[in-house]
Structures are given as structure tokens and as C-alpha cells.
């Protein structure tokens, strides 16, 4: 593990410092305020320039909503993994902070090709940079748990460039309409990430499926991200649309699409379950598909009726994707989509592109009045609505092509930073047995005692622990789950270390329990609790068996729960202790 510590201590700081220094230099050379920020709008006119005419007053509320979606919405949505919560929200923060800076430069540079001069930044450039960052985070969701921080930063560099090029082709050269980013943000980010995760596929990946799962509290945190995204999605789709009726229409259409999508999600989630129960994965993700699917057509005259149809279809498609397509992609095409971005962003994004093409085909002066040129600047007697619809369809093909081909090219650069070199020998061993979700322990210092508090038996009845399943071994050596006891049989007298743990983390220099024995351990998949196993035999449904080190004081008990994951990969450094890896 020394190599892992050295790697994290050197590679990540070097990458972050080097990238930020380069960005600072480029900003100093090539970036300046736009006229709304520098005050030129008022200086260049003889008339009075009122502050409320500044673009900031119209755009900043939408920008802040989008900003919350990027850092809180996407960040918490990915905290569903039971052992990757720190990394999900923490690396989301890191990648987003880097990507928005680079996106400002790349998008601004492509814009200066047509206008000349320096890169001008203002509130609108901030929104566009966040849009680019959103696409990067969508791809991050596809490879979640399978890449190191430096690999993710490397991937972000290439994706920001490819995203900006694709966006420039669609919006500036093909004159496509995509205010909410069904094509440029969602479709591109999803299929770029899927291609990367396909090339990064490793044999025996199915052995890590139990790590690619959630627990009760992690799903609650993920649901917080869902609610933030759901509430602010109308702002996301309308953030850069023209002021007035167009922006109003965009928010309203998205609003009703999301509502219809939510009911569709609940309906199909229960319908596809044999017991009629809801799946939290469906609710967390598919309920957002209505916002994705209306990203292209939201500013068009699709009507609330049409918006609700699109939202309903998007929810159904997303749930069906989680139920049927995700297992197919993993088993047949070797694509392990950690967050299900194909179902939330990929397929709904394609649906949105198709809806946008159909809606633009029906664009006429009768429907839009004198605002037709504001929505479709190119439509005229020389450029009919059918031509605009053709450009919309071509834009979808271009997006898919750049995303898929770009993902293949980029992943070869990313894969050179091997996990063994990046995360050290400990991670490499886990990978060789098929592990892809190693947990936060490899990248984060967690201030927690060696065993989780509360420990049953170490807490007074005034604050009892939640009931935990009790494992008993039957006479025929078959493990079974009995009714959960209020507290386990282990007492303070049997575990002299429990009294220390009941008072929180040990003081510096205090004696730590030694992980000293390799024992077979039963692990309950729903709760994550582990119990030292006695004897051999078959296991009932919901339990899995592994071999791990357990504290000496707990070795003889069949009911004493063991922390699902130690605080450090090498175990607790104490006298006469040896690494946990010795049990592997």
C-alpha cells in the first residue's frame, strides 16, 4: 500500500497543480470581460444605460439553478454506491471545477474563430461552461468506480474539447436548435461514456456486482440529487433561450413533461416488478428523463399536450431500459453502465432529437407569428422547415459519430494510466479478482474508529441501535436469517474494546484493535453487516460468503457484527498486526 499512498500523494497533486497553472496562464493571455461585465455597454452610448438592462439580471437566476444541478444534483445522484459515496460527490466536485474552466477557454476559442479577438466571458459563458461540464459528468456516471482521479481528469480534457467541437458544428455550422442539450449534452455525454466503459471492460467483472449496489441510506442521498435535478430542470432547458415568450414557453413545456414522466416512471416500475413493488433506481433516474427528452423541442410550439406525451414516453423508455437493456448491454456487449446513463440520458436524448426534428418540420408563420425568426433564424423562403428538420436529424448522426469515435480514441490515452500504477498494488489485486468498485478507502482519509459505531452491546438502551439481522447456524450447517434482535448477544464483558468504541474515535496513540484472524464471514447483501461464520454449508438467499480478517475479540461470536469495510486498506496499524490483504 506504500505505492498506493505515494501514487495518490504525487500523481493527483501534480496533475491538479499543472492543469490549474496552465489554465491560469491561458486565462491571463486570452480572456477578458464581455461588454456587460466591463461596463462598455453604458460607456459607448450617449443615452443612460440602466443596470437592469444588464444580461446578468436576466441570466443569473437560471445560471445558479444550473450550477446547483451540476454540483449538488449530479453529485448526490451518484452517491448510491454503498462504498463510493465520498468519491462520487467528491470527484464530481473536482471534475466539475476543472471542466468549467477548460470549457470556457475551448468554447470561447471556437467562438472567436467567427468573431475574432479575445475570449469574452460573462454570465452566458458561465452557463455554457456548466452545460459542457454536465456532459462530462454524464460520462463520469458511466465509468463511476472504475477510474482513478487522474484518469478522470485526463478524460475530462479530451471530452471538453470534443464536446465543444460537436456543439460548434451543430449550433454554428448546421444551425440546429438544441437549447436544452438533448443532443449536445445528454446524447453526447452518454455515448461517449458508454464507449469509454466498453473499452475499459475487464474479465470477471460480474464478480464485483455486489459492490455495484446501494444500501438504504445511500439511496436516500441519491434521491436528494434527483429532487434537485427535477426541480431545476426547467431552468436548465431555458437558461440560454431568448428572453420573453420563448424562455417562458421552454420552462412551461419542461415543467409538464417532467410531471408526466414521473407518473409514467412509477407506473412502469410497479408494472415490471413481479410483486408490484417500486424500484428506487427507476424513481431516482427515469423520473428525470422527461427533462432530457424535451431539451431540443422545449422552445418550440410543441404545446403542453405534446410535452406531456413526450415526458410519458421518456419515463416508460427509461424504465424499460433499466429493466431489460442494461442487463443485455452488460451480458452481451460487455458494457457496464454504472449509473445507467444510457437509460437516463442516451435513449431519452435520442428521443428528444427525433421530437425536435418532427416539431421543426411543422414550424410555420401561422404558429410562431413574428417570433419564427427568433426560434428558427434560418427558416425562410430559401430555407424551408423541411430543411431545418433535415439539419436536426443530421445533427443527431454527427453527435453519435463524434461521441463513439471520440470515446474510442480517448480511452487509449486514459487506459495508459493503469490502475496498478495509479492506485497501487492493493487495488491491482482487487482488480485481478474482478473488483471494480473498491470503495473510498483507496482515495480518502476517513476519520472513523476501526469498527463502526454503534456496536451492539456497547450502547445504552436509552439510545438503542437499529435492529440488525441475526445469523444462526442450523444443525444441518445451513445459514438462515432469524427475526432481528433488539441488540446482539455480545456484551461489554465479552468485548473489552467495545467500551472504547462507544466513546467515539480513539485518541491519538491509543491502542487499536488488531485485525488478527482470517475467518470465513457471512455478509448480508441488504444491510452490509458481516458475521464470523462457524462451520460450512449452503447459504440462504441474501447472504454471501467471503474470507476476511476480524478482530480477535469477535472471533468466537456468531452474532457480533463486523464493520463492512475497515478504515484503512492495510488494516489498523498496531502491534503484531498484519495487512488485511493476507486473507485474500
From TrEMBL:
Keyword Zinc among record annotations: no
Any single biological process term in GO: ammonium homeostasis
Segments forming domain Ammonium transporter AmtB-like: 53-423
Location within or outside the cell: Cell membrane
Principal subcellular localization: membrane
Molecular functions per Gene Ontology: ammonium channel activity
Membrane-crossing segments per the record: 12-31, 66-86, 93-114, 126-144, 156-176, 182-201, 213-233, 253-273, 285-302, 308-325, 346-363, 389-411
Keywords, sorted A to Z: Ammonia transport, Cell membrane, Glycoprotein, Membrane, Transmembrane, Transmembrane helix, Transport
GO cellular component: plasma membrane
Topology of this chain in the membrane: Multi-pass membrane protein
InterPro entries listed in its UniProt record: Ammonium/urea_transptr, NH4_transpt_AmtB-like_dom, RhesusRHD
Keyword Membrane in annotation: yes
PANTHER family assigned: AMMONIUM TRANSPORTER (PTHR11730), AMMONIUM TRANSPORTER RH TYPE B (PTHR11730:SF42)
Similarity remark: Belongs to the ammonium transporter (TC 2.A.49) family. Rh subfamily.
Role, per record: Functions as an ammonia transporter. May play a role in the elimination of ammonia in the gill.
Identification of the protein by name: Ammonium transporter AmtB-like domain-containing protein
Amino acid at each position: 500500500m506504500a505505492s498506493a499512498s505515494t501514487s495518490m500523494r504525487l500523481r493527483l497533486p501534480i496533475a491538479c497543480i499543472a492543469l490549474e497553472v496552465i489554465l491560469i496562464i491561458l486565462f491571463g493571455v486570452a480572456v477578458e470581460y464581455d461588454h456587460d461585465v466591463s461596463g462598455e455597454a453604458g460607456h459607448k452610448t450617449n443615452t443612460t444605460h440602466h443596470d437592469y438592462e444588464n444580461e446578468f439580471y436576466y441570466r443569473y437566476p437560471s445560471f445558479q439553478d444550473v450550477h446547483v444541478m451540476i454540483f449538488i444534483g449530479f453529485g448526490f445522484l451518484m452517491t448510491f454506491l454503498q462504498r463510493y459515496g465520498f468519491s462520487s460527490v467528491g470527484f464530481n466536485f473536482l471534475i466539475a471545477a476543472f471542466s468549467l474552466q477548460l470549457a470556457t477557454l475551448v468554447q470561447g476559442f471556437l467562438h472567436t474563430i467567427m468573431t475574432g479577438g479575445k475570449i469574452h466571458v460573462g454570465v452566458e459563458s458561465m452557463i455554457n461552461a456548466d452545460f459542457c461540464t454536465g456532459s462530462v459528468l454524464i460520462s463520469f456516471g458511466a465509468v463511476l468506480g472504475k477510474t482513478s482521479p487522474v484518469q478522470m481528469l485526463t478524460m475530462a480534457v479530451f471530452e471538453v474539447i470534443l464536446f465543444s467541437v460537436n456543439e460548434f458544428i451543430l449550433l454554428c455550422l448546421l444551425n440546429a436548435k438544441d437549447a436544452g442539450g438533448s443532443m449536445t449534452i445528454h446524447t453526447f455525454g452518454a455515448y461517449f461514456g458508454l464507449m469509454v466503459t466498453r473499452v475499459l471492460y475487464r474479465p470477471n467483472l460480474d464478480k464485483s456486482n455486489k459492490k455495484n449496489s446501494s444500501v438504504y441510506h445511500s439511496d436516500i442521498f441519491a434521491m436528494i440529487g434527483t429532487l434537485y435535478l427535477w426541480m431545476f430542470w426547467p431552468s436548465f432547458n431555458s437558461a440560454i433561450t431568448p428572453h420573453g415568450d420563448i424562455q417562458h414557453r421552454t420552462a412551461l413545456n419542461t415543467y409538464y413533461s417532467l410531471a408526466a414522466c414521473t407518473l409514467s416512471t412509477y407506473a412502469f416500475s410497479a408494472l415490471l416488478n413481479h410483486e408490484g413493488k417500486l424500484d428506487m433506481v427507476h424513481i431516482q433516474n427515469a423520473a428525470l428523463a422527461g427533462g432530457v427528452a424535451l431539451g431540443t423541442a422545449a422552445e418550440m410550439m410543441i404545446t403542453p399536450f405534446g410535452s406531456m406525451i413526450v415526458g410519458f414516453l421518456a419515463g416508460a423508455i427509461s424504465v424499460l431500459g433499466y429493466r431489460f437493456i442494461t442487463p443485455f448491454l452488460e451480458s452481451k456487449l460487455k458494457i457496464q453502465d454504472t449509473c445507467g446513463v444510457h437509460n437516463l440520458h442516451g435513449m431519452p436524448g435520442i428521443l428528444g432529437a427525433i421530437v425536435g426534428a418532427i416539431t421543426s418540420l411543422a414550424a410555420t408563420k401561422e404558429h410562431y407569428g413574428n417570433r419564427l425568426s427568433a426560434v428558427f433564424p434560418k427558416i425562410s423562403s430559401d430555407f424551408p422547415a423541411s430543411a431545418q428538420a433535415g439539419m436536426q436529424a443530421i445533427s443527431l448522426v454527427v453527435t453519435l459519430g463524434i461521441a463513439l469515435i471520440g470515446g474510442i480514441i480517448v480511452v487509449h490515452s486514459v487506459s495508459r494510466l493503469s490502475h496498478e500504477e495509479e492506485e497501487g498494488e492493493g487495488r491491482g489485486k482487487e482488480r485481478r479478482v474482478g473488483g471494480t468498485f473498491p470503495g473510498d478507502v483507496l482515495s480518502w482519509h476517513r476519520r472513523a474508529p476501526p469498527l463502526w459505531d454503534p456496536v451492539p452491546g456497547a450502547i445504552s438502551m436509552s439510545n438503542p441501535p437499529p435492529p440488525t439481522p441475526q445469523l444462526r447456524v442450523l444443525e444441518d450447517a445451513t445459514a438462515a436469517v432469524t427475526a432481528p434482535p433488539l441488540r446482539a448477544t455480545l456484551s461489554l464483558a465479552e468485548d473489552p474494546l467495545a467500551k472504547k468504541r462507544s466513546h467515539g474515535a480513539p485518541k491519538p496513540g491509543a491502542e487499536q484493535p488488531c485485525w488478527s484472524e482470517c475467518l470465513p464471514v457471512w455478509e448480508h447483501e441488504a444491510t452490509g453487516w458481516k458475521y464470523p461464520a462457524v462451520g460450512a454449508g449452503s447459504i440462504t438467499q441474501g447472504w454471501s460468503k467471503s474470507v476476511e480478517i476480524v478482530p480477535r475479540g469477535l472471533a468466537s461470536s456468531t452474532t457480533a457484527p463486523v464493520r463492512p469495510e475497515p478504515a484503512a486498506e492495510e488494516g489498523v496499524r498496531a502491534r503484531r498486526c498484519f495487512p488485511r490483504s493476507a486473507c485474500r
